[in-house]
Design brief:
By secondary structure, the chain is mainly α. Helices cover about 70% and strands about 0% of the residues.
């Protein structure tokens, strides 16, 4: 039973970690007033770039390769998100259309570049993130083997990022100013706050964390990149952000819930009472849950008042 629970928890954390990072990135962007539906595209570019980095430098960096690949994926995600920032902040484009363009551009661009570099549209990595036992905690009876044995450090780093992001957004001057430009940019501007700068910061942080999320998925879950690698993870992250009411802790909780349902799709065959459910239904569950969450909570969740509204300084 403990081994089954460990498998469920570890799979849940494996699927939840990219969602946690990406949904928190969405929180930063939308708290600053920029709707970012391009999280799917940002994750895709993070996954693609991290795989290319891993394949290229694996022989040089050894066991540290996946960690540097994740960092590289975050940087590429940040740079890719600048397209959205320029379009929405400087050119005052519609936020939904701009984000949709990112989502359409990223998979095609990734596959094209793989064809150019490797002569094929997909690539696997051999140096993926290994399992790890948390020192001391893994020996705790019952809890230790379930949560802290055969796990990965990046899971706990994602939880730390959620806690740190909550503190930054709600307890620091940067967070206060970011929220102010997302609620009332005109009032923030009259107080001397550079609205454009903080909106850029929010989008860039969403790109960095979304790139991290895509890279973690590629390095830890899919162990490679193809056009279908991300396959809706960015949209699930967007739903987790809304379900979590634009709060990093809430987004983390929603991501864990979505990750749990994704875990059941792969471990349900060993669980009494669930193993008789067809696998196709279990695989549908996370996406059905996404639709339900958006249908039930999108109208009730209150977004930042200026979210999605272009700011013109002269007004």
């Amino acid at each position: 039973m403990i081994s089954i629970l460990n498998g469920i928890i570890q799979n849940m954390l494996s699927y939840s970690t990219p969602l946690i990072l990406t949904s928190i990135g969405g929180v930063y962007s939308e708290r600053g007033g920029i709707v970012n539906v391009g999280l799917e595209g940002i994750m895709t570019m993070g996954a693609f770039s991290s795989v290319v980095f891993n394949v290229t430098l694996s022989s040089t960096l050894g066991s540290l390769t996946p960690w540097f690949a994740i960092l590289f994926g975050g940087i590429i995600g940040l740079l890719f998100s600048l397209l959205h920032a320029v379009a929405t902040i400087n050119l005052r484009a519609d936020h939904i259309i701009s984000g949709t363009v990112l989502n359409l551009l990223a998979p095609a661009l990734g596959v094209f570049l793989l064809q150019v570099i490797y002569g094929q549209g997909q690539e696997k990595i051999s140096n993926s993130m290994g399992l790890w036992n948390f020192p001391g905690l893994s020996s705790i009876p019952v809890i230790g083997p379930i949560f802290f044995a055969n796990t990965n450090q990046v899971y706990f780093l994602a939880i730390l990022v959620a806690i740190l992001s909550w503190y930054i957004i709600f307890k620091t001057r940067f967070g206060l100013r970011l929220r102010s430009v997302g609620e009332n940019p005109q009032a923030a501007d009259t107080l001397g706050i550079n609205v454009y700068k903080y909106r850029y910061a929010g989008v860039m942080l969403s790109g960095l964390l979304g790139g991290f999320g895509g890279a973690v998925f590629a390095q830890n879950t899919s162990a490679g990149f193809a056009v279908t690698t991300i396959a809706g993870q960015g949209f699930i992250s967007l739903a987790a952000m809304i379900f979590g009411k634009w709060n990093p802790i809430g987004a983390m909780g929603a991501s864990l819930l979505f990750g749990f349902f994704q875990s059941l799709a792969f471990t349900g065959g060993s669980i009494p009472g669930i193993k008789n459910i067809p696998g196709s239904f279990l695989q549908m569950a996370p996406y059905v849950l996404t639709i339900i969450v958006l249908a039930l909570f999108l109208g009730k969740a209150v977004a930042p008042k200026a979210d999605g509204t272009n700011y013109i300084k002269s007004k």
